[in-house]
């Protein structure tokens, strides 16, 4: 498993789609997960250190888990099946290991509130992760293309990500 951090939450103004960008802590690897508006808002508001006058859903869930005597140990983006990401919330409930199935966006929103680590299974990163090439790698001869050609570099990803707006304002539509 690879430990990740939330690099940013962005929005495509043309389509109104939101994406959470996870970045590996110890290397230049990224994972882009498209998420719904409510979860993007929940993640962005917490990342910005803002608060709501009343608990949001993820605050409520964290409070319930804590009040029941459990602790959120981590979340894991565990699988990718038919272009759908799967996650697990890992809890310690009085010494008992508990794993709860969750959408990645909900798991991430909960993890940042609990200050719990976010992990991604290596197999998920192998299939959906993005690794920028260094200038040295770009100058090396390319290996023969696989069945489906892969991009020579990540300029297309960079252009796409740069076309998105960071959710600096919570109510931004």
From TrEMBL:
PROSITE patterns for this protein: BFN (PS51658)
Listed InterPro entries: BFN_sf, Bi_nuclease_dom
Basic and acidic residues composition bias: residue spans: 145-154
Region (Disordered): 129-154
A Pfam family this chain is assigned to: BFN_dom
The BFN domain, residue ranges: 1-132
Gene Ontology MF terms in the entry: nuclease activity
Record-linked PANTHER family: VON HIPPEL-LINDAU DISEASE TUMOR SUPPRESSOR (PTHR15160:SF1), VON HIPPEL-LINDAU PROTEIN (PTHR15160)
Name of the protein: BFN domain-containing protein
């Amino acid at each position: 498993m690879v430990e990740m951090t939330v690099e940013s939450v962005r929005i495509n103004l043309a389509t109104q789609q939101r994406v959470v960008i996870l970045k590996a802590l110890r290397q230049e690897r990224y994972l882009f997960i498209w998420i719904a508006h409510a979860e993007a808002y929940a993640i962005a508001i917490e990342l910005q250190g803002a608060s709501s006058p009343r608990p949001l859903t993820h605050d409520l869930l964290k409070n319930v888990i804590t009040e029941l005597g459990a602790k959120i140990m981590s979340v894991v983006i565990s699988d990718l099946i038919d272009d759908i990401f799967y996650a697990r919330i890992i809890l310690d409930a009085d010494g008992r290991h508990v794993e709860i199935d969750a959408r990645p966006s909900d798991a991430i929103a909960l993890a940042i509130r609990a200050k719990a680590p976010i992990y991604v299974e290596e197999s998920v990163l192998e299939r959906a992760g993005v690794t920028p090439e260094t200038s040295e790698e770009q100058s090396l001869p390319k290996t023969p293309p696989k069945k489906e050609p892969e991009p020579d570099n990540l300029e297309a990803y960079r252009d796409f990500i740069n076309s998105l707006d960071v959710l600096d304002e919570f109510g931004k539509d």
